[in-house]
Each structure stands twice: as structure tokens, then as C-alpha cells.
Write a structure and sequence with these properties.
Helices cover 78% and strands 0% of the residues. By secondary structure, it is mainly alpha-helical. The protein has one domain (12-214).
Length: 220
């Protein structure tokens, strides 16, 4: 991989994105705490919440592109992250029942992975932008495999999907960070924060699943 051929860097955009990301993670945590009291609602209306999240992603992406709609974009971003935290209630409730420490481990691994993969373009200045096509293809494959496994219910497939997804979204952290560093300082920070949040969310969920699996706490 190539090194970034730049003499100086403007970290202003990255700072904005990290600020928005901090709010997003906080909203998700609040959402997850609230969701613990509504597990049945989440399970019963799983597809409704899935559609809601998808709609919020598109709405945030569209509104976030408009600089004149910064406040609505910020609100949409945090509504989305709150909802994603809310819908984590089933797996968090299960983890709290069988292995509460797994949540702490998953959070630590997620934080460590995010920091480590962010350092690749920030400190080591490795250009990972060329991975864009590969990562997108991997993302599509993961989505298709996950949808198929909803019907086949294969534990082995679910395990393999989680391992691959963890690696994929870890690489996405480096890729999305590199994109931020190569963008105009006036680029839409909300959309970029959304991308990084999705990376973090997917890493956390898959790492938590893997920890529960490898610790012998399998969901039946």
C-alpha cells in the first residue's frame, strides 16, 4: 500500500467528525439502556425497526449532505443511533443473563480496534483508499449471506459471517478515516460520522456475538 503523499494535513474535518461520533455513540448507549426495558417490543417488531433504521440511514445521508440543514442532520443522526442502540436490547439482555463480562470485552475490543485501525491512515499514513471496491464487494456479500442465513439458520455460517464482518468493518474504519483525511475541510461531517458509527456498531455486534459463541454461551 502506498503512503499519503502530502506535506501537511488539515485535521479540522476529522475533529468535527469525531465530535459528532462521540454524540452518536452516547445516543446509542442511551438507546440501549432504554431498550433493555422493551425487549419484547424489539423482538416482536423486528422488521419494523429494521425498516425504520434503513429509512433513517437514507434520510441522514441525504439531509447530512446539505450544509444549510446541519441541525436537522445532527438530529437525524442521533435519532438513528438511538434507535440502533434501542434495537440491540435482545442481544444485550441475553449477554447480561449468561455472560455480562462479554459486553465489557466487546466494548474494549471495539474501542481498541477502532483506535488501531484509525492509526493506519492517521499516523502511519498508509493509503487504503484503493480498498474501496474490495470492501464494497465484501459488504454486499455479507449482506446477502446474512439474509440467506435468516432462512437456513446455520450456526457455522453465522460464525463465519461474524468473523468476516468483524475484519471487513475493521478495514472500513481505516478506509473511512482515510476518506476523511483526503476530503475538503468543508465536506459534510454528519455523513462521515454516520459511516464511522456504522463501522463501530457492526464491529461491536459481531465481536459480542463471537465472544458469546467462543465462551460457550450459544443462543438457541
Amino acid at each position: 500500500m502506498e503512503k499519503f503523499n502530502v506535506a501537511t494535513r488539515d485535521y479540522g474535518l476529522l475533529s468535527k467528525v469525531y465530535g459528532l461520533l462521540a454524540f452518536s455513540v452516547a445516543s446509542a448507549v442511551v438507546g440501549s439502556v432504554v431498550g433493555l426495558d422493551h425487549v419484547v417490543t424489539v423482538v416482536t417488531h423486528f422488521w419494523l425497526f429494521a425498516i425504520l433504521e434503513l429509512g433513517l440511514v437514507f434520510a441522514t445521508s441525504i439531509v447530512g449532505q446539505n450544509k444549510d440543514m446541519a441541525l436537522p442532520g445532527f438530529i437525524l443522526l442521533n435519532v438513528f443511533t438511538f434507535v440502533t442502540g434501542f434495537t440491540l436490547a435482545p442481544i444485550l439482555t441475553y449477554a447480561l443473563a449468561v455472560n455480562p463480562v462479554a459486553i465489557i470485552y466487546a466494548m474494549a475490543v471495539t474501542a481498541g480496534t477502532f483506535i488501531a485501525m484509525s492509526l493506519v491512515p492517521i499516523v502511519f499514513r498508509v493509503n487504503v483508499l484503493g480498498l474501496g471496491g474490495f470492501l464494497f464487494a465484501g459488504l454486499i456479500a455479507i449482506i446477502i449471506a446474512s439474509l440467506l442465513n435468516l432462512f437456513f439458520h446455520s450456526s457455522a455460517a453465522a460464525l463465519a459471517i461474524s468473523v468476516i464482518a468483524t475484519v471487513l468493518f475493521s478495514l472500513y474504519v481505516s478506509y473511512d478515516t482515510a476518506r476523511i483525511l483526503n476530503m475538503n475541510p468543508d465536506a459534510p461531517a454528519i455523513v462521515l460520522a454516520l459511516a464511522l458509527y456504522l463501522d463501530i456498531l457492526n464491529i461491536f455486534v459481531n465481536v459480542l456475538f463471537l465472544i458469546l459463541e467462543f465462551s460457550g454461551n450459544r443462543r438457541n
